[in-house]
Design goal:
It contains 15 helices and 17 strands. It has 432 residues and is of the alpha/beta class. The protein folds into two domains: 121 residues, Urease, subunit C, domain 1 (Roll); 298 residues, Metal-dependent hydrolases (TIM Barrel, Alpha-Beta Barrel). The strands form four sheets. Strands 1, 2, 3, 4, 14, 15, 16 and 17 form an eight-stranded mixed beta sheet that branches. It binds zinc ion. The site of zinc ion (ZN) has 3 residues, from loops. Zinc ion (ZN) binds next to loops.
């Protein structure tokens, strides 16, 4: 009964909070300015009705304003993950994808809601979900979250991935073709490519995701060109899963907005991307994640260590070269694994640490997950920066995020979404 009462009280306070004019003054020890890429000390943030009204060291608390002292915290804009798969939860076995795809749609939405909440709690206030979401379950989840009853990030969605025949797989038994039909939109020629983009737009997607290559197949130049042209005519961006240099280069030349993964990019392709303003979403992993993932496929000891090291050395080198050539980087986790020891939220936010582990400074990697991502979403006038007039999507990390990045990044004290504290770790509010 006491439990029920406290649950009711919590519900009531959440509702009144959402309805009353929400005026907050928050003191932080450090604040990350994502445009300048600098940390400012001892700042106050004044928020009214979900919008940031003022930032500065000397803001006075007016009557009726709730004061929150987070002087032990570092504030950043709400983090953005440009590559999520909230509608799939996949074991690392050979048939992992098949089993995950057989989960009924209603269950996948339910699971997606849980992952959305987990992502919000690690500070991800916006995600771009790009495929492996059945038949437009991402659109359905986005609508569900937009109702405001369930907690989760703002979603941008792609619908089924446009792919060459056979989907994203190397080889698959004919009996498993249901996975391809359910999870992909197979493209058969340029006219069909145009149709597929128009179908997706009708369903309400925000971005087109193409699978440019698999082990042995690629979209043709005519197909990718038709996709890009049709999407851009309708003001929809296109991003391409491309794992090889050849496929990435073809996609860049066809005019895609971004490359996902790009494990194998040559200097020439990176230079081309910098010239054309094509961004890169490096879906990398931390050292700790690499160890767990490699052990998950059954490797042990020195074999596991060597394998993880080989992979990480490769992607670190690719990221450093991309940065060196002036390619715009956006943070994207691609974390969809059902694996012990790596919850969804931690797995997702870890990608930002992976960029730092590659040798990129903290003030740069945070921009990948804030300002740069907001710009690519066409939303930099409302998210991605803590400044006057922006939506109050803000994360407060315990400690000094600039100095203790690897620790503080995983220690969230509070998350604000539209000015509402959606994740308070412990009670810190005082009404001075
Ligand atoms: Zn992916």
């Amino acid at each position: 009964m006491r439990l029920l009462l406290s649950a009711l009280l919590f519900f009531y306070s959440t509702i009144t909070q959402a309805q009353s004019p929400n005026r907050l003054l928050i003191q932080v020890g450090k604040l990350y300015d994502s445009q300048q890429k600098i940390f400012l000390n001892n700042q106050k943030i004044f928020i009214e009705n979900g919008i940031i009204k003022e930032i500065g060291p000397n803001i006075k608390k007016a009557a009726g304003v709730k004061f929150i002292d987070l002087s032990q915290c570092t504030a950043t804009p709400g983090l953005i993950d440009m590559h999520t798969h909230l509608l799939i939860h996949q074991k690392q076995s050979d048939d992992g994808m098949i089993i995950a795809s057989k989960v009924p749609a209603s269950e996948r939405i339910k699971q997606g809601l849980a992952f959305a909440k987990e992502n919000l709690e690690v500070g991800l206030t916006t995600v771009r979900d790009i495929g492996n979401s059945g038949q437009y379950l991402d659109v359905a989840l986005k609508k569900e979250l937009a109702k405001g009853k369930a907690l989760g990030p703002t979603m941008y969605v792609s619908g089924p991935i446009l792919s060459p025949p056979g989907g994203q797989f190397g080889k698959m038994a004919p009996a498993d073709s249901f996975v391809i039909n359910q999870e992909y939109r197979v493209i058969k020629g340029a006219d069909d490519a145009r149709l597929a983009v128009l179908e997706h737009i009708k369903h309400g997607v925000d971005v087109i995701k193409v699978c440019m290559n698999t082990d042995n197949r690629m979209l043709t130049l005519d197909e990718i060109s038709a996709i890009v042209k049709t999407a851009h005519e309708n003001n929809i961006p296109v991003t391409a899963h491309a794992t090889t240099d050849k496929s990435a280069r073809a996609a860049v030349l066809a005019g895609v907005n971004g490359i996902e993964h790009g494990y194998d990019l040559s200097d020439n392709t990176l230079i081309l991307m910098a010239q054309r303003g094509t961004y890169l979403v490096p879906t990398d992993v931390t050292k700790e994640q690499a160890k767990i993932l490699v052990e998950g496929i059954g490797m042990r000891g020195k074999e596991a260590e060597d394998y993880a090291k080989g992979f990480l050395d490769g992607v670190h080198d690719r990221l450093r070269r991309a940065v060196g050539k002036g390619v715009t980087i956006l943070s994207g986790s691609d974390f969809y694994n059902d694996i012990k020891g790596l919850p969804r939220g931690k797995g997702a936010v870890g990608v930002i640490l992976s960029y730092h582990e590659a040798g990129i400074p903290v003030n740069e990697v945070l921009q990948y997950a804030t300002y740069n991502a907001a710009k690519a979403l066409g939303a930099s006038d409302s998210i991605g920066t803590i400044k006057k007039g922006m939506k109050a999507d803000i994360v407060f990390f315990n400690g000094d995020l600039e100095k203790d990045f690897g620790t503080a990044l995983f220690d969230v004290q509070m998350v604000l979404k539209d000015g509402i504290p959606v994740y308070p770790k412990r009670k810190t509010e005082t009404n001075k």
